[in-house]
Amino acid sequence: MLELLLIIGLSLFVGIYWNWQVLMRHHWQRKYRHTTLNQADKVVLHNYVTAYRNMTDADRAKLERHIVWFLGEKRVLGRDGLQVNRAMRLVIAADACLLVLNKQWPLYPNVKEILLYPSSYYAPQTHTDQAGLVSFHHVVRQGESWPGGTLVLSWHDVLEGNRLPQDGHNLVLHEFAHQLDQQTGNTNGTPELPNSISYQDWASVFSRAYQHLKMQIAYQMPHTIHEYGATNEAEFFAVVTETFIEKPHQLKQENPELFNLLVEYYLFDPREWL
After folding, report:
1. Given the DSSP bridges, would you call strands 134-141 and 143-146 parallel, antiparallel or unpaired?
2. What is the rounded CA–CA span in Å between residue 188 and residue 234?
3. H helices present in the chain, as ranges
4. Helix (H) or strand (E) segment spanning residue 134
5. Tens-place pLDDT, residues 177-197
6. Mode of pairing for the β-strands spanning 113-117 and 150-154
7. 200 with 194: CB under 8 angstroms?
8. How many CA atoms lie within 13 Å of 267's alpha carbon, on the beta-carbon side?
9. Nearest of 192, 35, 188 to residue 103 by alpha carbon
10. How far apart are CA 48 and CA 89, in angstroms?
């Protein structure tokens, strides 16, 4: 009898483990079934998020459902005395959910909280030289993405990213792209890919594009992707994501191979929203 109970218990555990996300999706669908954005929320999004204004009704409805889930599952906490209100949470949620518009819940499963500073802030940093000497200093930052599930954002720069929707800079898109990258356990510019994209193809296309950007910068050639993308492969993915959303026509013209791969990964074409 005891052995039978153990077998049943183990079977239940295995079944729940392998179907955990499916079970959670059912739970969230019931939890948020009657939760919608009100008219005041939609006015905020219309005023601050360009893509939301220009989307099709179907895409806008998907984004709104994601925003509802995001606001219910992620904490946004003010720092340095900043009082976070619903409008701030809405703008951050909209930008973040844009990247995963056609993905299933859970969105950004590793993210637990977003720390929001009024503007750029000082962050401690350590540096080890070739002799092994460790030095400590502070650097000014606009945002950070930590693998442990915390993002840090400057509210001033969040607003600037949405005020200039075609300049190729959006702090929320940048930092949440890092979170997509970090879901693999590494931060190397390669997120978890759908079955339709091979890791070999991704590495090949991104490596060529990354080296091309470094060459453009070295020879002072014009380039669509911001030069910060040449820092390393992880920053390249984050910067290219910003460029993909905010300068899709230019990116398509400069590097159609890279653009088409990003369309296949993100499952939308941002040119439809401009």
Report:
1. unpaired
2. 5
3. 2-18, 20-31, 39-48, 50-54, 57-73, 86-99, 155-163, 171-182, 199-218, 233-246, 248-254, 256-266
4. strand 134-141
5. 999 999 999 999 999 999 999
6. parallel
7. no
8. 13
9. 192
10. 12
Beta bridge mates, 150? 113, 146
Say which amino acid occupies 221.
M
- Going by C-alpha positions, the residue among 123, 159, 153 that lies closest to residue 140 is 123
Does pTM surpass 0.85? yes
259: closest CA among 221, 215, 217, 225?
225
Q: Among all chains, which residue has been given the structure tokens 């005891």?
A: 2
The type of residue at 122 is Y
CB 251 within 8 A of CB 273: no
133-148 per-position pLDDT tens digit: 777 767 889 999 998 8
